[in-house]
Design goal:
two-stranded antiparallel ribbon; 203 residues; 30% strand; alpha/beta; Rossmann fold; 7-stranded mixed β-sheet; 32% helix
């Protein structure tokens, strides 16, 4: 299953440009605003789960953050991000891993995930993810998923929709919800997707 998932995403990033995938954002404003609100100090350790070749890392570096890790299941996606950043890529730690097999050696001050958590559809995968955040998030977390009015699939894969209530229920053992918002994302091909973003602090 893990191999199939990795092959799926490698194929996506080998065959499609950023303009051809729905999740591309020219400026990831919501993520940036949430990260700044929970981790204003520029030396906080930030991990971007499923960062792929997202522009978020560019803006975090530009904002002065100095301890950034980007994790993605696709090696090709991270190679694209590193090529885009050039010399700046040396200031980022890059990790190729399926999130359900990720074994961090450190805790992170800020955990950011836009659109990975909702790809976990099996109870055991969700439990694994929640346990990972319980053990390896030191201070704050920002999670963005498709909302109850968002898509049922992405990139041909089933997803799990969330509401503010169900998101809070998933993480309430170790985290206290700070705030949740809904956001309508306009894709590069002018369709819309509704997301729910929630920020949490460690109890």
């Amino acid at each position: 299953m893990i191999k199939d998932r990795q092959e799926h995403w490698e194929h996506v990033y080998q065959t499609k440009t950023p303009e051809q995938v729905s999740w591309t954002q020219e400026v990831p404003r919501t993520s940036l605003d949430f990260i700044n609100s929970v981790g204003p100090d520029k030396d906080v350790s930030i991990i971007d789960i499923g960062g792929g070749d997202s522009n978020l890392v560019d803006f975090l570096l530009e904002a002065g953050y100095t301890n950034i890790t980007v994790l993605d299941i696709s090696k090709k996606a991270l190679e694209r991000a590193k090529a885009r950043l050039g010399e700046k890529a040396k200031n980022v730690q890059w990790i190729v891993s399926d999130i359900t097999h990720f074994t961090p050696s450190v805790q992170y001050d800020v955990w950011h995930d836009r659109a990975v958590f909702h790809f976990l559809t099996k109870p055991q995968e969700i439990t694994t993810y929640v346990s990972l955040t319980n053990n390896h998030v030191k201070h704050s977390m920002v999670i963005g998923t498709f909302s109850k009015t968002g898509p049922l699939k992405c990139s041909g894969l089933e997803i799990t929709q969330y509401s503010e209530t169900s998101m809070n229920s998933a993480f309430e053992e170790a985290f206290e919800k700070i705030t949740c918002i809904e956001e309508t994302h306009t894709t590069p091909f002018n369709t819309t997707q509704n997301f729910v973003f929630c920020s949490f602090k460690k109890k």
